[in-house]
From TrEMBL, chain A:
Name the UniProt record assigns to this protein: Amino acid/amide ABC transporter membrane protein 2, HAAT family
Keyword Cell membrane: yes
Mode of membrane association: Multi-pass membrane protein
One Pfam family it belongs to: BPD_transp_2
Organism, as annotated: Brevibacterium sandarakinum
UniProtKB/TrEMBL annotation, chain B:
GO terms, molecular function: ATP binding; ATP hydrolysis activity; L-isoleucine transmembrane transporter activity; L-phenylalanine transmembrane transporter activity; L-valine transmembrane transporter activity
Name used for this protein in its record: Amino acid/amide ABC transporter ATP-binding protein 1, HAAT family
Keywords noted in UniProt: ATP-binding, Nucleotide-binding, Transport
GO CC annotations, alphabetized: plasma membrane
SUPFAM superfamilies: P-loop containing nucleoside triphosphate hydrolases
Species whose genome carries this gene: Brevibacterium sandarakinum
GO biological process: D-alanine transmembrane transport; L-alanine transport; L-isoleucine import across plasma membrane; L-valine import across plasma membrane
Residues in ABC transporter domain copies: 3-250
InterPro entries xrefs: AAA+_ATPase, ABC_AA/LPS_Transport, ABC_transporter-like_ATP-bd, BCA_ABC_TP_C, P-loop_NTPase
Cross-referenced CDD domains: ABC_Mj1267_LivG_branched (cd03219)
Automatic annotation (TrEMBL), chain C:
Biological process per Gene Ontology, one example term: amino acid transport
PANTHER family: ABC TRANSPORTER PERMEASE PROTEIN, BRANCHED-CHAIN AMINO ACID TRANSPORT SYSTEM PERMEASE PROTEIN LIVH
Organism: Brevibacterium sandarakinum
Xref: CDD domains: TM_PBP1_LivH_like
Protein name: Amino acid/amide ABC transporter membrane protein 1, HAAT family
């Protein structure tokens, strides 16, 4: 209940409600629904990037590759092998996570620019395999007629609104997982690595293992988003796995706010909207967006949600510091002080946890 | 014996940073390592904690060989440390900083967090209480909602100790804990260190402030050029002619 | 055997190109401590600007490369000033993200001006030489000779000239260099400009045997990063050795196995090296 008093959570819920209601406004416009649903698929992959880049502070440039693996697993298995969507989806997501886990075995030993370049190489190898292994992936002719999810007679997922809600529900789970990680000791572990690997080491954090798991988790979300994407658009080509795709994700998270709960979703939806808006200049959009990325990283590196959150935090902290100071306690108060502030601490417990959920 | 160091050595290139050092740290005591700059004090700490791999010798903690264990294993095994230059998470509050020290004692995993299991709830509450208690013990609880970058140096130093305490160590390695603290506050700070053994935390520290060491330590090891020069009680060290000579001869080194 | 010699020369020529591209990148890393992910985009722009002066304006080949190199030098200086300089105290991820923004921008600009289609730059140097029975095109000989000359000049510049010596000083010790009165901001601009100049020469040399496209820099970017990681970030000799080793490995696998493997060989080697030595093959051992 306390959670509802927290402006951060309220804000996130408001964004989710607005998105949940979009079919009311655009339900008849198949094209718009498709664009929004594709945006949500990207957002799921961006949540993966948030874990490795936003929480752990490691720039992973393999996310487009993981997205591509998820998409191609669903694409190829449901067409050439005639599996059901759900079987293919499961195999795709598990497979992507496994590949993430295995490449994480090497990634965990590298840091900073070495990590970034290593993951860029992983992403590029995935792209090369997809775009060059013609006998399996059909290379540039791509994969057509990817199946919609099956649901017996209950729901028809070829209906864009039904598909939208399926992706939306999975996105909700991703948002919740991010929120749960953020406020737990797992999230604290990752944030510790982001701030200083040496200090993390000194307080007993297993830096390598944490990085490896974070990388595997980012791959999991990448595969999840990619698998859904293949089914939503029905046709996929090698461009689903390019390094450019990774850079697109990077822009989404940068606009929304790295390391925040709502940022990946907010950033993805805003930029997707802008892409559509500039659609007539598809090819040239980066003439504007390139400098926008640079300006953001120089002048506003915390992103939209990051700044809003920072504002909320400062106000909350002022209030709490104020209440401690006015209670007139000082260090020499001894025993009574201990009790009082322990109690204050307990009642502030929820507040402290919420404070950590950016 | 809590910590047993035997013949410990570390070579960098062709230079011996630490050579053939023996040291015993008794439970419930404050043991100090002193010596001029470049005597290998920090290297010794890094060897004990696992940041460096020793080239020779052994380290045993509670009778268990930890010569080649990594830092995170040392911490979970019960050895905490602080750094010479205070290391804190600047953009976090003091409470969040000390909570980070609880990570190593947390057993709940990602799935506990996602499903909000009873174990996770219990542990969050416990972590919070322990962190707050550590801040209390170090006398900085009133600053717990301040950002680490906004509090005075002395409070930062105390928080670093609280963060180390939160890992529930049996032995704490303090690298110049009072460095940068104004002279008049070192007594207070010394009292904090002195009170650690009463919590079951033995202390091994490196310190430059000689007066502080003499009041604080039960046993002192003097290092010079990476080797043991003398070991004994403060009184023995103060009257040891080798130590006096090394210290007088080393004032020039220290200025470099 | 003839095929082998042919491919060996092709490999050496490709190595010369990689070398010119890699040296600039590794210098930038040594001085600015940032991996410039926009390096491949500078290469691409260098190729297009050369193409513009050669084909559209109609100046001679050598002059076209020269003018393009100067223009790219200025662009490199601007890139440092406007993008990397404001970020000099930011977390390392920020540089890389900003470089990616710059890369997108350059690609878009090229696409707007010259279109997305492939362009062909006519070979101004024709003919070929017979060496040990293999036929080597004159363009490749020119590439090898120019690469050697430029490398020689660069070595002279770094060892002998004031500017070059300051680059080397900063690369070795940034704070120390600042203490003896070297202006790191100036040197940073110079270094990025120099790296753009070198990579433009590489692009101008290779364009007659490759096609031009706005995304031509992407693959080169990754390969050059693989090279400087193999050679140790910031190491000049490492970059030179790495360039030729990788280029020869690439041409040989393309010839004797398959072109896809040839393209991937750089990344397979990179992943393998990082698995064994997380900081590259020739990097100084970090004391831990």
């Amino acid at each position: 209940m306390n959670a509802l008093k927290n402006p951060r959570i309220l804000g996130t819920l408001a964004v989710l409600v607005v998105i949940a209601l979009t079919p009311l406004a655009f339900g008849d416009e198949n094209y718009i629904m498709r664009v929004i649903t594709v945006g949500l698929c990207s957002a799921i992959a961006v949540y993966g990037m948030n874990i490795i880049l936003g929480f752990t502070g490691q720039l992973s440039l393999a996310q487009g590759g993981f997205f591509g693996i998820g998409a191609y697993a669903v694409g190829l298995l449901t067409t050439d092998f005639d599996w059901s969507f759900w079987q293919a989806f499961l195999v795709g997501v598990v497979g992507t996570s496994a590949i993430g886990y295995l490449s994480g075995l090497i990634a965990l030993r590298t840091k900073d620019e070495y990590f970034a370049i290593f993951t860029m190489a992983i992403g590029f190898i995935i792209f090369l395999i997809i775009s060059r292994w013609e006998s399996v992936t059909h290379a540039h002719s791509g994969v057509n007629n990817v199946k919609f999810p099956e649901a017996g007679d209950i729901v028809d997922f070829s209906n864009p609104t039904a598909m939208f809600y399926l992706v939306f529900v999975i996105l909700l789970v991703c948002v919740y997982i991010t929120y749960a990680i953020r406020r737990s000791s797992v999230g604290r572990t990752l944030l510790t690595i982001r701030t200083s690997e040496d200090l993390a080491d000194a307080i007993g954090v297993n830096v390598g293992l944490s990085k490896q798991l974070a990388f595997a988790a980012s791959a999991f979300f990448g595969g999840l988003g990619g698998g859904l994407y293949a089914s939503v658009v029905g046709f996929i080509g090698p461009d689903a796995a390019t390094v450019d795709k990774t850079f697109e994700f990077l822009m989404f998270i940068l606009v929304g706010g790295m390391g925040t709960v709502a940022g990946p979703l907010v950033g993805t939806m805003i930029v997707t909207f802008l892409f559509e808006f500039f659609q007539d200049f598809q090819a040239y959009r980066f003439i504007v967006l390139g400098p926008v990325i640079i300006a953001l990283v120089i002048f506003a590196p915390r992103g939209i949600v990051g700044y809003l959150g920072g504002f909320i935090d400062r106000r909350a902290r002022k209030r709490r510091i104020g209440s401690i100071r006015t209670n007139g306690q000082s260090r020499s108060d001894g025993a009574t002080h201990t009790n009082a502030s322990t109690r204050a601490g307990n009642s502030a417990d929820t507040a402290t946890t919420t404070e950590e959920e950016k | 014996m809590l910590l047993e160091i035997r013949g410990l050595g570390k070579r960098f290139g062709g230079l011996d940073a630490v050579k053939n050092v023996d040291l015993d740290v008794q439970e419930g005591q404050v043991t100090a390592v002193i010596g001029p700059n470049g005597a290998g004090k920090s290297t010794l700490f890094n060897l004990i904690h696992g940041f460096y791999r020793p080239t020779s010798g052994s380290v045993a903690f509670n009778g268990r060989d930890i010569t080649h264990s990594s830092p995170h294993n040392s911490v979970s095994g019960g050895i905490a440390r602080t750094f010479q230059t205070t290391h804190l998470f600047d953009d976090s509050t003091l409470l969040e900083n000390v909570l980070a020290g609880r990570i190593v004692r947390s057993k709940s995993n990602v799935f506990d967090a996602i499903f909000h299991t009873p174990r996770h709830r219990r542990e969050s509450a416990l972590n919070h209480d322990k962190a707050l208690e550590a801040l209390e013990f170090c006398g900085v609880a009133e600053f717990r909602h301040d950002l680490a970058s906004n509090v005075p140096q002395e409070v930062q130093k105390r928080t670093a100790v609280a963060m180390a305490l939160a890992t529930e160590p049996e032995l704490m390695l303090l690298d110049e804990p009072a460095g940068g603290i104004p002279e008049e506050e070192t007594t207070d700070f010394g009292n904090l260190i002195r009170s650690l053994p009463s919590r079951g935390v033995s202390v091994l520290l490196v310190e430059h402030k000689m007066s502080m060491i003499m009041d604080l330590a039960d046993t002192i090891l003097v290092l010079d050029h990476g080797q043991k020069l003398a070991i004994g009680s403060p009184a023995e060290i103060q009257s040891n002619p080798d130590v006096i000579r090394a210290y007088l001869g080393s004032t020039k080194d220290e200025e470099n | 055997m003839t095929l082998f010699i042919q491919q060996l020369f092709n490999g050496i020529a490709l190595g010369g190109i990689y070398c010119l591209a890699a040296i600039g990148l590794t210098l930038v890393f040594g001085v600015l401590r940032i991996p410039n992910l926009a390096h491949g985009a500078l290469y691409m722009l260098g190729a297009y600007v050369t193409y513009f002066f050669l084909t559209t304006v109609g100046v001679p080949y050598v002059a076209a490369i020269g003018i393009a190199a100067l223009i790219l030098f200025v662009l490199g200086v601007l890139l440092e000033r406007l993008v990397f300089h404001p970020l000099r105290n930011a977390p390392h991820t920020h540089h890389m993200i900003a470089a990616i923004g710059a890369m997108f921008f350059f690609q878009s600009v090229a696409q707007v001006i010259w279109g997305a289609d492939f362009k062909r730059m006519e070979t101004p140097i024709s003919g070929s030489l017979q060496i040990l029975g293999a036929e080597i095109s004159a363009q490749r000989i020119v590439i090898i000779v120019t690469a050697v000359i430029v490398l020689g000049l660069l070595t002279w510049f770094i060892k002998r000239s004031i500017h070059g010596q300051t680059i080397e000083a900063i690369e070795q010790d940034r704070t120390g260099a600042a203490l003896v009165g070297i202006n790191p901001a100036m040197v940073s601009m110079l270094t990025l400009g120099l790296s753009a100049l070198l990579v433009t020469i590489a692009a101008g040399l290779v364009s007659p045997i490759n096609l031009l496209s706005p995304t031509m820099g992407a693959a080169l970017n990754l390969k050059v990063f693989a090279i400087i990681i193999l050679g140790g970030l910031g190491s000049l000799p490492g970059a030179i050795v790495g360039s030729f080793a990788l280029a020869i490995a690439e041409t040989m696998t393309s010839t004797y196995i398959s072109s896809a493997v040839g393209e991937a060989v750089a990344f397979i080697v990179l992943v393998a090296v990082l698995a064994i030595r997380p900081t590259g093959l020739f990097a100084k051992a970090v004391q831990r």
